[in-house]
Amino acid sequence: MRMRGVVSIGFLVTMMLGPWVNGGAQESSADIQVIVNMVQLNVAVTDNKGDYVTGLKPEDFLVTEDGIPQKIASFGEGSERSRRLDDPAEAKTSPSAPQAQPDAMLPDSATTNVLNSLVSGSNVFILFDTSNYMYRGFVFAQDAIADFVKSLENADKIAFYSYSRDLSRSSMLTKDRTQILHSVRSTVAGDDAALYNSLLLTVKDAAQYQGRKVIVVFSNGPDNSSVVPPEDVAELAQSTGTVIYMISTRAAQLEPVSTAVFERMTAATGGKVYFAKNWREEKAAFASIRDDLAHLYSVAYYPKANPNRGWREISVRLVGEKKKYHIRTRNGYRPLPARFSADTRPEPRPEPTIIGASN
Predict the structure, then answer these.
(1) Helix (H, G, I), strand (E, B), or coil: what is residue 290?
(2) Which terminus of the chain has a lower count of CB atoms within 10 Å, N or C?
């Protein structure tokens, strides 16, 4: 077990820092800093009946990070674009981390581009289990995924990945629904399931994009060949602002370990888990995810000065009479490394590192 933990941590560090480590070997002048320019949250608000609460305003939300009250910089509901609330000059000069350097701050134009990209649909990564667990219900699962793809009118782009022992990036992010549907229909059942390995790679891919990032996993059984623990996957998803939804067959619920892991992972990222015993429930689960995406609030803020370079706890609450409603969102993040070179900068200027900006 100890050796497994060492392998898992090493794998995660390699996946997260590989590009920076390799680049550093060739560019001795590069600096590696932890800079958080903006934190973006996807927030679901429901009443006691589970119905979505709409029409809330920025002043209805109270956001704290490590107990420090934060000022909301942009706000949006559903698929509408986020609107900017703060003063650009203030946002530009507000320190987001004690080690951030002035030359790492971005011009107003870059900040505006980031805010404009926050919520204009979602970038959805579909991760389909094609392991040998899937033989019995394979065609029905394909049908449910295809219907889901067709229903995502507000999504900017969709990617379709499949996995068994290895991850297959069948279709990268695209607006072409025909291409995605072809990839779905072309999948075949295969080997053992390495869910957490594949999910980690998918989270890493999603982290490269701004805006709302969503991963929808269809899993038909437990993981039996990953070397990465699910806790590491969940933390990386939280730190990159990636929401994870999982749909699993009812059979998986019979295994307490898988059930508990799926529930913890999705809750930590602000997503949900569904257990479907037949194709009708699978389609209903996908429809529920689509509705959830259409009702999420986008709440973004520039973190106030915080000496904590490790895990930062986020709390989102409602104020006044709206306290009675229920909130679902991620509960924290860990600032990730961002590289800035003092001598050279690529053209065009790099986009800011956004913790939880969604596409």
Answers:
(1) helix
(2) N
